[in-house]
Specification:
Blueprint (H helix, E strand, L loop, with lengths): L1 H10 L3 E4 L4 E4 L2 E3 L7 E4 L2 E4 H9 L10 E4 L15 E3 L4 E3 L4 H4 L2 H11 L3 H17 L1 H10 L13 E2 L4 E5 L11 E5 L8 H5 L12 E6 L3 H18 L7 E5 L4 H11 L6 E6 L4 H14 L4 E5 L9 H15 L6 E2 L9 E9 L8 E8 L7 E8 L9 H16 L5 E7 L6 H18 L6 E8 L7 E4 L2 E4 L4 E3 L9 E6 L11 E8 L5 H11 L14 H17 L15
Helix pairs in contact: 8-11, 12-13
Amino acid sequence: GRQREYMMKKLGGQVVMTRYNNKTYTIDDFDWDVTVTCTFKKKDTEITYLDYYKQQYQIDIRDLKQPLIVSKPKLKGPGKTERDPLVYLVPEVCYITGLDDEIRKNFKMMKELAAYTKINPLQRAEQTSRFVSNLYAHDRAKEILKDWNLVFEKEHRKVLGRRMPVQTFVTRRARHMPTSNTNLQQREVNPNTGSFDRECQQAVCLSTTHIANWIFIYPVRETQNATNLYEKMQAAMPALGMSMDEGQYIEIPGHDVRDYISNLQHAMNSSVQLVVALFGTNNPQKYNAVKKFCCIQRPVPSQCVVARTVSNPKRIMTVATKICIQINCKIGGEPWTMALNHESMKNAMIIGADTYHCAAQAGNSAVGYVASMNEHNSRFFCYSSIQAKSMEIMDCLEIGTVQALRNYHKINNRFPDKIIFYRDGVGDGQLHVVKGHEVAQIKRALASQNIVDCQLTAVVVQKRVSQRFFLPQGNKMSNTPPGTVVDRGVTRPEWYDFFLVSQTTQQGTVSPTHYNVIEDQIGMPADALQAFTYKLHHMYFNWSGTISVPAPCQYAHKLAFLVGQNLGQAQNPVLNDRLFFL
């Protein structure tokens, strides 16, 4: 009943560790009909879980009625349909790994944890040096290293890096003039932080759309917050070059999900351009219901806001400005772009792709696919798909690319001359699969449209890397600044790869992003590809600064997350030509 649903909601998708064999497993389900007194087949004999743990690991299980955890092995590659047998685990001997949402919301606890998890560059350098020294101080450790033919350098390796020049972002000069070369204004990004937040809030968006018909739905208890938000949005829009007529205001008596949906159904018509929903609390059920209605049943861009976000009078103007920028993106506008200097990137289409595996649900994995549609790389075509659970390798790239190419031709009256495909979320062991299976799909899509002269470059993006770079400053170490590139000394000689530090951090050590070029038909100089990639780090419209991956990858992740976590199926194709998922 409810207890079982609650357990799956809280524990489904969590990773547990079993100390007796030091392995990790994902909780996919609970089997309430199987307990430790049940038997399973071990070789040719039947044995209970109770006896197995006693004989194999000398562990005495105390609770005889606990249901067993079910963990499903992952499908490793494309085309594989058979799984290994299910793994049954006893909860009593499993340990939850990671941090849940309740712990993450505990500011005091997270602050104390940060002292151990977010150490500064000097501390990290000293720890690694101390670790290596301890290894060579023990005879047994030295014997093991010798047997493995493994040698650790006793000093940190010094490598040459270089820093990108100061970047500039581009907006409109005057809000009453159309977007043209004479009406563009360039402003510098802060080179030390990679941020242009303050400048962006005072800049006219690159392109906007007037909002003539929209719906604002909110609980009657939140009338004051709704009024404040609307007034601040109206105050923020002129500076951004945006405009909005007075919308339909719908006050609902309570906070029930059905009140939101029934009122939206009654008010919705074909001329509605936007739905803004204000929630009293952060309730996933209400959010999912509104998003399903606006993304699948009656496709229209939607903006959901929690009352707590707009209840602080000191921050509401900043929040309203960011909401306006988000809304502009969702209805097809463009907040800014980056100054592009390399001629070879004209008439190029930039693709970002990522997958999301919804651990809390028993559903399948979601694929997000985003492709740029203009020379500014600020308008996008979006495509999503559902595939087998835990399937990382994508099977839908050919379909998505065909649709993207047709949409590109519809907008530009020509197909692209070049395509750069940024693939996020795969490890080193899957590089050959990405090239042989996913890149091949893009090539087939080009061939199906009779495009023979389009050059393709494919780049794998990896955020979770172990490498860290420090900048020596006398006897101290500091983080490398944003825009630092390292492509020698620690890269693989058989690969075309490089590391890029795109962000800064106030606490801890900054992490680089690793790029591996697995296909290169364009033949751009390495520094030109690196510079272009760094510019894409500034193009994520939810954040006026740099992010850890190129913006198309982050858009693809956001789309895959929405589809996998909230919608459960692909969005209505009507929304494919805008960033409705921000």
